[in-house]
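Researcher: Let's walk through a ligand-bound prediction step by step. First, I give you the protein sequence. Second, the SMILES string for zinc ion. Third, you return the three-dimensional complex as structure tokens. Ready?
Model: Ready.
Researcher: Here are steps one and two:
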Amino acid sequence: MPVEIQVMNIQEQLCALMALQRIDSALDEARRKYAQLDQGKKERALYEEAKAAHEAAQEAVRAQETILQDTTLEMQALQEKHLKEEKRLYSGQIKSPRELQDLQAEVEMLARHIDTLSGRREEHIIQLEVVQGREANARQKLQKTGAAYKERIKAFNESAALLRDEASSLKSARAEAVHVPEQAMLERYEAARLQRNGVAIAVVLENGEVCGGCHMTLARNQVQELKLLNSIVVCDNCGRMLCLE
Ligand SMILES: [Zn+2]
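Model: Step three, the predicted complex:
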């Protein structure tokens, strides 16, 4: 009975390859899912954009603060000078009418200058409030986009960890399953996997009528050959090795 023993042997080996195929397909699927995980590229771009906008808004506030400070200092210096000259004007110490007239003109000129600066300072204060408002909005947007990015990364890490765990246990299962079939069968399986989109072997479905790989109806003689003869039978349509389960 050597032929029958060999037929059984091939069937067993095909079943072993089928078990390996299921693990390999699951591994391929896990890799595909991993590659498709959303790593938050969009959220990161929005966050970076908000960060740059916030930095620009902060810079605008600093620049406006400097302008306001400069104007304030300039105004204070003029006010001091104005006060001093005014004191001198009314001190009674200056007797020359010409000198008094000049001093009067100087005091008036200083007062006008102070008025102008005061008006400008008011505008600077209003403008500072405007840029501070923009900075507050930009900060809020930065916080919002930062939180969304962080949330996305957290979700990515969780999904990635699950897929890594899954792949790790599949790899352990594969390490055991790969020792069952003979080397020559394994080589044939690996070569077919490369040629046939990762699926080298297919189960015969629906009472031995349909290829589980391409779902086409199998020729009757193919199925009989598979059941009775000592050979590997491949599907006429998709070329995958057939396996009875
Ligand atoms: Zn097929």
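Researcher: And what stands out?
Model: The chain has five helices and three strands. Strands lie at 201-205, 210-211, 241-243.
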